[in-house]
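Protein modeling request. Please complete all fields; requests missing the sequence field cannot be processed.
Requester role: graduate student
Desired output: 3D structure, token encoding
Chains: 1
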Amino acid sequence: MASYIRGNDKETTIVRRNCMRYLCLTQVLVLRDIALSVRTRFPNYDSLIAAGLIMEHEKQMLEDEKSSFQKYWMPINWVFNLCYEMRAKDKIIGDGLLNAILYEVKNYRDSLQQLFNMDAVPIPLVYPQVVFVATRIYFFLCIFSRQYIIHTGETNRDILVFYMGLLKVAEVLMNPFGLDDDDFECNYIIDRNIAISTLMADKHYGEYPVQIRDHIDPYKLRLNSEISALSPLHKLIGSAALATEGVYTRVLNTISQI
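Delivered output (258 residues):
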């Protein structure tokens, strides 16, 4: 987005920033409905306005849409229309670049849709209940049924750690967007995406270092530290590369004998 929409004028800069903001807004709208941490942070549209993710007139456009379905598509639609407008004003040079932008935005939208679909179809409640209850009842009964001294050589003495360890892992994986310490840090991801996208679209647009010839010698590479230089270097060689010479020699010997 920042590379294909060219221009340093005020209008183009605003469009670049807003396109990136709309993409981040779409992500937040989706995560609000599947992640408790994001829902707690952004409980309504007013909180999105306070965070700078949406403006008052944009909020009004969302509220004016009376569709009974989720409105995740609206910011994406704004991005598509803005990109078309930039192409009409020659801010996007070429239809190929416009198609590339729309293709990547579509992939972004499809990824969010897949994320939402996975949350919308949870594991049937009876399955985890049976597993969790059955495992705990099993070890509760073992307290009375297995009251004997476990020797050092017993093969089943680690069964509690094995079963309960896998059970705890399964409990965490059931809801990766919860509030536990091991769940996804959705708020950090949102903050990072907003900050980086805004910097790329505005402050660092068209920026690159002064071009000076480097000093890398392709025949004398010195890219190792003192510690890594001591490690052996294993070259990537094809599985048949070393066998070719021997096979070729045998073929020549066979031909000469004939």
